[in-house]
Amino acid sequence: MGVHQNYIAGSWVDGASVSRNVNPSDLDDVIGEYAYADAAQTKDAIAAATQALKTWQNSPIQQRADLLDKVGNEILARKEELGRLLSREEGKTLPEGIGEVARAGQIFKFFGGEVLRIASERVESVRPGVEVEMRRDPIGVVGLITPWNFPIAIPAWKIAPALAYGNTVVFKPADLVPGSAHALAEIIVNAGVPAGVFNLVMGRGSVVGQVLLEDPRVNAISFTGSVPTGRKAAATAIGRMAKIQLEMGGKNPLVVLDDADLTTAVNCAVQGGFYSTGQRCTASSRVIVTEGIHDRLVGAMVDATKALVVDDALKQGTQIGPVVDQKQLDQDLSYIDITRKEGAKLAFGGERLNREKTGFYLQPALFTETTPDMRINREEVFGPVVSVVRVKDYEEALHVANDTEFGLSSGICTTSLKYASHFKRNADAGMVMVNLPTAGVDYHVPFGGRKGSSYGPREQGRYAAEFYTTVKTSYTMP
Ligand code: NAD
To answer: How far away, in angstroms, is 149 Cα from ligand 1 center?
Structure first.
């Protein structure tokens, strides 16, 4: 099998170097070789996107709608195969991988429809006889920088609206998951995207990503990743007045009140905390529990966590796949160590596991008796590590839930309408879940957070237009 190439200016091209992706469930399984671009090739892609913008920004909406719909249909038709590739390179279980691919397909189809709904607005002028019109223009060339944990859904929810609203794209996927990105690019190319409108540039963040952030021809950057990288990205992009949108980390609370349905609460906590190996920005990493239900909940959570099947992502029956790579595994183990030393009780898990194949397997770890000031409750681990905080009542629970620099997703389990309503209004987060895990969202509504989790306009749904367009107000005296 040859090296998977980058797609620049309408051609598949070799890179300056080659990288391999490895299956985290089986370290002997090398999935493929991928071309890594250098700075010059990244600039070639930006030049192509700049040139293509002239035509694409005025392309017929039917052409764009058809393209996106075709991409969506192809993704959906191949969801099993693409889901398998995704699970093999990222390590989430096969049902999770297929589910993510299906979501990517739906996103393309959604934005295929949105193209037909781009509307202008006319208002009366305060000056007699003058006509005023507000329309949404494309923002221009957009650089898309994505993380490894949703290798196809996150690229989809950036590429689809970018193209829908008439922008051209330079897409830089995460280093660990080039396979899903390449497969998606092939689908977009085969659907007939004009040369230069869409470019795939695989490579290092410090090389490809940095050029995208610095190049004045890139009008906007949509970034999803960690807080430290996001902060640096923002400083560079804002320094040259580029538009930027950042989606970053979380330390998402799940509040469980005395009146909660125990089965629902356990399911929300275990599913939200450990599924996808805890590697979700929306994972419920802090479970904040009132005194009356605390011991019952912890007991049931320990039982449920013990019963989780940790194994090869592609094996039938696996519930928790491996950690994505050695670096992330080291980070998870280091937080387990730190939390023990800070005096929390390890109620279950936290051990490395051996399976038939050599992989990055980690037993989900559940800590109890933690306090809000501990590092485990303040910093994102991004692994299968959940902490429980005991609180007196709802008021303290809400305070602890909001006492974080993050603000992505916030959940509550309760049967009380009063507390559910109050929490929805007062949780300091971009997304709030009642009797549902903090992770798991729809594809047709806005996604994003507050405080340290996000910066700039929301992604997804109709709100994506805020980022991918710029408003023009025109005045006419007929
Ligand atoms: P990361 O910050 O390490 O990398 C993100 C992307 O930035 C990658 O493509 C990387 O190559 C690139 N990059 C690295 N250095 C760069 C530089 N100097 N200039 C430009 N680009 C650079 O994040 P990750 O480890 O891939 O992903 C995990 C993080 O993503 C977690 O913090 C998680 O919470 C977050 N995340 C957030 C959301 C959300 O929507 N809020 C969704 C998924 C993941």
So the answer is: 9
3 state DSSP class of 112: helix
Ramachandran sector of residue 145 (left: φ over 0; alpha: ψ -120 to 50; beta: rest): beta
Q: What is the pLDDT of residues 35-90, one digit of tens each?
A: 999 999 999 999 999 999 999 999 999 999 999 999 999 999 999 999 999 999 99
Nearest ligand 1 atom, CA 227:
32
pTM value?
0.97
Q: Residue 405: beta bridge partners?
A: none
Indicate if 281 belongs to the active site: yes
Is 247 labeled as catalytic in the residue annotation? yes
DSSP letters for 235-278: HHHHHTT-EEEEE----EEEEE-TTS-HHHHHHHHHHHHHGGGG
Say yes or no: domain 253-434 is CATH 1.20.58.1000.
no
Q: Residue 62 carries which side chain, given as an amino acid letter?
A: Q
Ligand 1 neighbours by CB, cut-off 6 Å? 145-150, 172, 174-175, 205-206, 209-210, 213, 224-226, 229, 232-233, 247-250, 281, 380, 382, 408, 453
Q: Cα-flanking dihedrals φ and ψ of residue 12, to 5°?
A: -80, 125
Q: How far apart are CA 361 and CA 352, in angstroms?
A: 6
Catalytic residue among 90, 96, 281, 413: 281
Question: What are the residues facing 391 on neighbouring strands?
Answer: 290
Residues 408 and 124: their CA atoms lie apart, in Å, by 40
Distance set, CA 322 to CA 88, 91, 305, 366 (Å): 10, 6, 15, 17
Predicted confidence at residue 292, as pLDDT, reads: 98
Burial of 441 (0-12, 13-18, 19+ CB in 10 A): middle
Nearest atom within ligand 1 for CA of residue 229: 2
User: Where along the chain do its domains lie?
Assistant: 6-248+453-476, 253-434
We find that the CATH architecture of domain 6-248+453-476 is 3-Layer(aba) Sandwich (3.40)
